[in-house]
Amino acid sequence: MVGVVVGFLIARGRARREERRPTGPTVAELLERLVRSSNNGVVVLNKFGDMVLHNPRAYELGLVKVNQADPRARKAAEQVVETDDPMEIDLSPLEARGRQPEAVLGEVRPLGDGFTVVEAVDHSEAIRLEAVRRDFVANVSHELKTPVGAIALLTEAVLDAAEDVEEVRRFGGKILRESTRLGQLVTELIALSRLQGAERLPDLNVVEVDAVVREALGRTTLSAESAEITITTDSASGLLIEGDRTLMVTALSNLLENAVAYSPAGSPVSISRRLVDGKVEIAVTDRGIGIAEDEQQRVFERFFRSDKARSRSTGGTGLGLAIVKHVAANHGGSVGLWSRPGTGSTFTLRIPAHIGAEPAAAAKQAPPASRPEKTPERTPRLVATGQESPDHGGNL
Asked: How far is Cα 361 from Cα 354, in angstroms, rounded to an integer?
């Protein structure tokens, strides 16, 4: 009888302890989850340099290879155990292979009793951004220096030829062109800075695509007439987008100016618009010199010019397509490119349509007047997002 009572009491005590035990993971389990889910590479070493704990990110950053910690990390851990002071080390890959991290910085900290923790952080993106910033500053300095230097030399020439009215007029015209180019460069730099986040973008409103096309055509008429190029469009679409009208006009104007600048005299340039999968596509097609395939990924970079001589002669700044790319991105869209050297190019803006826009609007479009020929077979190429660019049904 006594044994039964004692057994009952022990069982009840165990039940009470089970009830008091908290449900869910323990602190140790949570810490292990934290280490394994960390975006930084983490390795814990003992006093012999052997790994006690590590996470998957340590493999990705190269901190752990073949189940061993990087020799640089082990050597640093030995010093930390001796000095009991944390230290930073460079754990960047010694050989560049594919798309692995390029710049990895590690910190080694003592844990006591001969144990150390090595934490590695990927700084590759920061290094790349710094390189881009340096290139941008160098390019801006060069681009600004050219017209400023030209204006200074031309001004000296005007002063020397003050008695010759014809020479003064000739040099004065050149000064005007260089100052205009300088002003355009500064304006585009400011616009690009705003689009990249230096200033808050205006609120997006409902914008008529047809109105954007009309205004962009108005801005480009003079340069097109000077180049003896006719710009044609398809019929009004009635399409609407969510955006900023001024920025959209700027982007489309840049595409038109680019098409005019890189097309031979007398060649056609056309604009088409349609609705595809909830996005409004505005395509600008030319029969210009085209862009080589190895340069198509770079045409949206700041100051990049596929034909430097032609760009200089037309006064291009090399910022137009960079602005187009950022305008599209800030509207939640993209810009695509198809091009073939000697045939021409098609740049396509894709902007989300205004909710409630009639899908049938795209079907009402008439074929562009400048595209009577059969569309050549081609493989579309979308530069900005890596997706396929749907055929716009237009000739190059």
From this structure: 12
